# Entry
Amino acid sequence: MKKILVADDEMSIRLLYSEELKEEGYDVITASNGKEALEIVSREPLDLVILDIKMPEMSGIEVLRQIKEKYPDLPVLLSSAYSEYKQDFGTWASEEYLVKSSDLEDLKAAVRRHLKN
Amino acid sequence: MPLNRLTFLTNLIDLFTSTVSYEERLANFVYLVARNFNVDQVLFFGLDKNRSRLFLNADSRKSVLRPRLEFALGEGIVGQTAQQRTPLILQMSQLPVQPENQPLLALVPNVQTLACFPVADDNFLYGVLLFISRVSREFLPVEKETILIACRMLAGNIRQALLHEEAKKRIAELAVLYEIAKATGATRELPVLLEQVVSISAKVLNARGASLRIVDEVSQQIHVSSEYGIVPRDVPPVGTLFCEKPLLTGELPSITSELTNSQGEKHYFAGIPLNLKGHLKGMLCLYDKMGANHSFQQFDQENIQLLQTLAGMATSSIENALAFQQIEALAAKNARMVNILTVLHDISAVLMTTIEMDKILTILVRALTFKNAMDYDRAIIFLVDKRRQLLVESRHAYQPSAASTLPLRQALLADLGNPEEATPVGPHPIEVPLRPDQGILAQSVLFRKPFHIMRADQHPQVNQQIREQLSGQEFIAVPLLAKEEATGVIVIDNHFTQRPLDEEDMHFLTMFANQAALAIENSRLVETIEASSKELTLIRERMLESDRLAAMSSMAEGLAHEIRNPLVSIGGFARRISKQVKAGEELKWHELKKYVDVIVDEVGRLEKILRQMFDYTGDSLGYFREHEINGLVEDALTLIHRDLEKYNIQVVKEYADLPPVYCDERQIKLVFYNIFQNAQQAMENGGTLTIRTFPLEKKDGLYAAIAVSDTGGGIAPELVYNIFNPFFTTKEQGTGLGLSIAQRIVSRHYGDIEINNELGKGITFTVTLPIAKYCLLPLKNSTSGTTSLEEV
Ligand SMILES: [Mg+2]
# Structure
């Protein structure tokens, strides 16, 4: 079973994402801040990470940077409520940037896309 | 404290136009400079009369006992600055100490920076200004420029002081001379004296005629000054009887001689030289001593001795009378000079009182035409327009001014705001292109040369328009010279009185023009400074505007984030429920309950945001009444009491008795709730919340002040300016709206919030609200007592 990490400071988003992704047949593990996310990444063998950007203490961008430094092949999807950062995501070296939406079809499609590789 | 050039220069102008003595001005000057440039000590070294040594003349720290300090030209930083006339700055840390500078270093221990500026005008160096700093200090270009302007002003002031001293000395000398001359020569005026000498001599010796000849000091020729009786005409010139030339050296003997004229008639002659201190001053001649029967006789030795005694007595009297006459001439000439110097001094003192170009030009035109000043009939001032390369008529006086009863200084300054005088040039000022072929005025500026034109109508170089204005008369044009550069030209004539102009007019006008140019230059400098400070203000405003735009876009961004997150959750869970229902699966109630709870929570969060936004934008109606502020603060505190306990935060309260404040209770509670919440969030690991209320007297009345301090360590200074921006937050929780809302509410109450951020300690917010009595809000009948903000 593919293992996905969802990192978001909002409890409701973590809950929503993990319920939906579990239904798709993934193993989902969550983190409520950047530090916790990095801990899990270094501990667990993961297949994909979904990262929120605005989180306290350590932003998603910093988490992304550290992940890519150590695990350049681990796919990371950025998922943020900010739409205006989208145009910058290329420089952030994530696989994709998704603006949060209540319709999770785009997110799930992206997950499928990047898990195939 | 950064240097405020305008204030500093205005202070200097105040100082230099004050009535205190020159020494006191100098002392105040160094003190002012030291204070404004924030250095430990400022010294002024003046150049001595021989222009070879510099002596310490003024010290910004008067009380400090100091050794006598002097430097030769070229010696040490002081001497070198004086020699090179350029500023020198020494950083002690970078250079080995020169032994010549040792006396300076001994003066102040641990000197780090020495900076030395020349005090000079275009012609002379008067001294140097030395800055001593115990901390290493750089001088910005703007500081250097300001110091040089100050030095230049000081130079101008020293020059005036010297000029004034000179004028005073000369008046004193003349007064003494005048008195001596009056005492010795009081009895006779020279012509009367000479007449008496001749007639007495002739009568005493019974001679038919006598003459007295005096050596003219200027032409060095002897000429007849006085005659008595009959002097034979056709005899050889008397001078030839002594010797040909030179007449003026050595003491000459008396002679007697027999002369024969063309008709063969014999005449007798005695010549007695008037000798004074080895110089021939003149000659007394007697002719034809008459005998008993009208026959002519030769003068005998006794006669000669008598004449010599008389001549001896006369000589010193004549000499005195001569000296008196010369002194009178000299005094008349000097009186004009002293008068002009005094006038020039007055004018320059008056010019120092303003930096407004219009006023300066008015003063200049008045000074040129007033009866008790330069007293010319008409005057025009042209200024150079650099951009258009033109000389433009800027001010004129085409009518002789009425004699003023006021003293000159007051007359020059009277009614300066008079609009008629301020714009007297008319719609078509004379303009002259700045090219050498454009006549005298352009040449005067281009070649920096004065011109004295005798007949304007006949002079080929006189510009046509000027010729019309001057109607073919004599005039003088002098350039306004400041720093090698001509900034304009002054033209004067005596159209009505036809009083001729001379070399002295040229001389004084040149001196006048130098002062005028200095005043104009200062005015332009200040204008430039003012313009650039205006520009700075504009830039600052634009920056503030872009700050506001940035704040708005960050608000929109923050709003999107705050709303999108709950919407995603609500929508997401609603979809999940919908999917489960649609699929007709057996409903998992515990899951549904979980989802619905999230939806309810998130909707609550959205409502809270909207509520805050609602308050923030001020659409709600306010309920204004008089309230005890301490009570409102206390109420707000109970709202957050639980959180404070949870995070182990102690509360310290110091409430003063305060008169009621006119406010909307609900909004003011929200202000303090937000501030307390901010403090609590800054002290998640515990701390102390201090609340202090006290009365505060401001310019416009009495205020209630509420100071709220936390011990949360403060925030980075660069973030302080953002603290009231909507959605700005350094915290994990919170929308960042709280303080922004608080500020908006307080300002709607005509109050203020101030922040005092002490990094490492904490932040103090001080809210001030006007006491009801002084409140700008309308106080309505307090029983019906409500009013909406929109009516305010
Ligand atoms: Mg977030």
Summary: The longest helix of chain A spans residues 11-23. The pocket of magnesium ion is lined by residues A 8-10, 52, 54-55 (CB under 6 Å). Chain A has one domain: 3-108. The CA atoms of residues 25 and 106 of chain A lie 17 Å apart.
